[in-house]
Amino acid sequence: MQPLTKRLTNLLSEIDAAFLRLQITKKQDELAELNVQLSSSEIWNNPVNAQEVNKKFSALSAMVEPWITLKFQVTDMVELMQLGDDSLMAEFEQQVNAFEAEFSKLRKDLLFNGEYDNHNAIIRLSAGVGGTDAQDWTEMLERMYLRWATKSDMKSEIIERSVAEEAGIKSSVIEITGLNAYGRLRGEHGVHRLVRLSPFNSDNLRQTSFALVEVLPQIDTPDEVQIDDKDIKVDVYRSGGKGGQSVNTTDSAVRVTHIPTGIVVAIQNERSQLQNREMAMKILRSKLIQLQLEQHASNVSELHAGESANWGSQIRNYVLHPYTIVKDTRTKHENQNAQGVLDGDIDEFSEAYLESLQQ
To answer: Is 2-111 CATH 3.40.640.10?
Structure first.
């Protein structure tokens, strides 16, 4: 009984330490305040705000409740074991094993200590050097992230997509919604390189292709990022589809330029001009926050011109010929099951990246 009791008390100590680091008590207070707001009938006078509050409540609750439950169960088990009933030893050991497994799963929350890790994410994919191969590679990455989202119980939506002439895509913008979406994906930010036998080359030669992956924390509300109106230039134009045909007969496409940094965001899907502008501004705010994190600036006004995740920041190699391996250039983490990775099994790379930041 003694070794088992020691394991359980050690586990309880680790849970208490995690409570402090994750500020669980503070988050419980936040949940209580959000619950009061949601209980008020007045909040529904502003449906957009009510939806945001409800979304925040759900995300916070999904993070906090498992920790509260685990601590309650472990504390209860400690008290039960102190009664010293040896006939229940096998059952106690089974429970302790289950608690340790649950803690091992939950402790990954400790990795998400970035300021925006609990935000949803926006992924922007852009084809690089490599012609049709690069455009096909970009579409493969789009598929990889969509599959990852499904496996991770995340909601994904393609909000902008530019299809290439022969195969693949030139660019894609994906909105990923779920618990710690940005925290789990921010390690994907950078250039991804593919080496394979080209399916578009009659000689079947080995081809190297590049795609740029930008992972941005989704900034939904304007008050999270203060942007001066004079720093914004907005252009509207007619949407164009693949092959030059008109997608829309009105000037609904929107291009927003942030003059100080030179960041340009263009949205031209089949929504209204107002919806396109709102989405463009959301992505612009997200890009400015990402740039602010990279430049260690205290606010947007301190930012200078620069490209987030430029083409020099290669982070991962995917080799499909003459052997198969996926290797991260930063953490050296690798996986020889390249197809599994391309099917969305990227969590091990994300965790290796986040753990490297803790060292």
So the answer is: no
CA distances from residue 37 to 42, 51, 56, 57, 63 in whole angstroms, order as listed: 9, 12, 12, 10, 19
Tell me the DSSP string of 342-359: HTT--HHHHHHHHHHHH-
Strands (E), the chain: 121-127, 155-163, 169-177, 190-197, 206-217, 232-237, 253-258, 263-267, 314-319, 325-328, 334-335
In Å, how far are 183, 329, 332 from 187, measured between CA atoms?
A: 8, 12, 13
Give the torsion through C-alpha atoms of 83, 84, 85, 89, to 10 deg: 120
Q: How many CB atoms lie within 10 A of CB 303?
A: 17
pLDDT digits (tens, 9 = 90+) for 49-78: 888 788 788 888 988 999 999 999 999 988
Is the pLDDT confidence value at 244 over 50?
no
Q: Residues in the chain, how many?
A: 359
Query: Which of 181, 179, 62 is CA-nearest to residue 122?
Result: 181
In this predicted structure, the answer to whether residue 1 has a pLDDT above a threshold of 60 is no
Return the number of other C-beta atoms located less than 10 Å from residue 320's C-beta.
16
Distance from C-alpha of 236 to C-alpha of 21, rounded to nearest angstrom: 47
Q: Tell me what percent of the chain is helix, strand and coil, each rounded to the nearest 5.
A: 50, 20, 30
Q: Which CATH number applies to 121-218+311-358?
A: 3.30.70.1660
Q: What is the DSSP letter of 26?
A: H
**One-letter amino acid for residue 15 of the chain:** I
CATH of domain 222-302: 3.30.160.20
Of 196, 192, 149, nearest to 345 by C-alpha is: 149
| pLDDT in the model for residue 4 | 84
Compute the average pLDDT of residues 136-160. 94
Q: What is the pTM of this model?
A: 0.77
The domain segmentation of the chain, as residue ranges, is 2-111, 121-218+311-358, 222-302
Mean pLDDT, rounded, of the chain? 86
Residue 180: CB atoms within 10 A of its CB come to: 23
